[in-house]
């Protein structure tokens, strides 16, 4: 496409970015010099350059070696974090021969492999290597797909001649490879559909996109051209937009909203110069500036701010740009906003400040920036959680230490009196507990309900923390009740963790302690059906005959729950099958019509009565009635 109609700054930026897609051994030095000049003159930004390199690494693997050389040689323009991002991307396809050098790369295809020969279009070596494996139909089909993707026409034709089968996958892969001869051979037998258009866009094949549109009436959107870095296609589509503020999707976005997602500030400037509204709200009440903050594009933000775009726009979710930037981890955006006077403690609809947003996303760099600009480290969200509490709950150790180093209050409480230490009770948060302990947090603190970290650990079934607390902090009493009627062993029985129950018993817990309703740990275990905990309690001497305030014992509870295994364990350990003034275990089994339980109880000596027969009869359990009658 001819870009003569564009201003010079726009033409120059597009020209250099498109050249990167064609980088090879012959032109790398020329492209490097042009990019360096473009970066120096701010024709393109470093974010724009790196974004393009990122895309090319995934969609042009045969150019990775040259992209890598380009990035390393221009590393003075960006920080180490950006270098790591590119390394990560490139290492998906290639590996360095020595740490952090780029002198030589090996592709992820092994030396002397069939894939390597296809990838490098070395037909002679390919034919020699595959001669002994032509009977492997699966291999031929797999290599055919790879030949399509690599654009290796000779290998492709050879595989077809040897019986490899074309499929819809080969059509898509041939689009990716961009070899027109392969494409036209494959299209005769395979389906050409929207997936082909999608891949033509993604793999930066503009001529194939136009061919698919003209010959197969396949469509694409202007937003897809931005996603795929196809500038010529972008401007072709742009000509069809009637108005600068025309909404181009169902979310009410204008083209300016979409361009704001990408590090193409030259496009953004061009569109604004054409009359696009910089403060247009989409259906989510987001402006282009908000979108730039959401996607972390500092050059777009600076451009929009220089044109007096509204900074404090509020989205439909009650977020300002600084909130979304903090949530998404964009420290550079936070820095720019704060330098322009944005309220660093502005709250979203959940009363979360940007600091809490950054903490919830585990973005330490954003946390540092916000605190640098005066963020309140003692703020509260709608759950009355402080930044420290949110950090502890999320097990974010680096952020916790940073807050502690900045003097955060370790003993700040929620309205019910819980401190940050309470949020270390989950099993995965033990290291967080140790960090707070190391910094002298109050381990024995109790909230308004009389609960402390020991009780919280019990409720969370945190064996490691419970053991640690009992061994290091003797003031934690395994027999001290919470709110006068709930003891630690009762809590452990409800949690049904056999190791925790054993741990408490080993530390002297009263095995027959009761709750406010007279239930013992054994009865609670019978209710929840944990036979391993039940057997442990019986082994340790729990009273199987104990009755609660309603006159029930563990056996009645187990029968009502219809847990046959628990019932059998209790009966085998001398539980009384005839307990109960009016409603015995057999009575309950009869009323439920549970034949297995009836047989089990009768086997262990339960005595049939008129009441049990009536219970079976009145509830329509004739089989139960006959079974009980046969034992009279």
Automatic annotation (TrEMBL):
<feature type="repeat" description="ANK">
    <location>
        <begin position="550"/>
        <end position="582"/>
    </location>
</feature>
<keyword id="KW-0040">ANK repeat</keyword>
<feature type="repeat" description="ANK">
    <location>
        <begin position="581"/>
        <end position="613"/>
    </location>
</feature>
<feature type="repeat" description="ANK">
    <location>
        <begin position="317"/>
        <end position="349"/>
    </location>
</feature>
<feature type="repeat" description="ANK">
    <location>
        <begin position="484"/>
        <end position="516"/>
    </location>
</feature>
<dbReference type="Pfam" id="PF12796">
    <property type="entry name" value="Ank_2"/>
</dbReference>
<dbReference type="InterPro" id="IPR036770">
    <property type="entry name" value="Ankyrin_rpt-contain_sf"/>
</dbReference>
<feature type="repeat" description="ANK">
    <location>
        <begin position="517"/>
        <end position="549"/>
    </location>
</feature>
<keyword id="KW-0677">Repeat</keyword>
<dbReference type="Pfam" id="PF00023">
    <property type="entry name" value="Ank"/>
</dbReference>
<dbReference type="InterPro" id="IPR002110">
    <property type="entry name" value="Ankyrin_rpt"/>
</dbReference>
<feature type="repeat" description="ANK">
    <location>
        <begin position="251"/>
        <end position="283"/>
    </location>
</feature>
<feature type="domain" description="DUF3447">
    <location>
        <begin position="169"/>
        <end position="235"/>
    </location>
</feature>
<protein>
    <recommendedName>
        <fullName>DUF3447 domain-containing protein</fullName>
    </recommendedName>
</protein>
<dbReference type="Pfam" id="PF11929">
    <property type="entry name" value="DUF3447"/>
</dbReference>
<dbReference type="InterPro" id="IPR020683">
    <property type="entry name" value="DUF3447"/>
</dbReference>
<feature type="repeat" description="ANK">
    <location>
        <begin position="350"/>
        <end position="382"/>
    </location>
</feature>
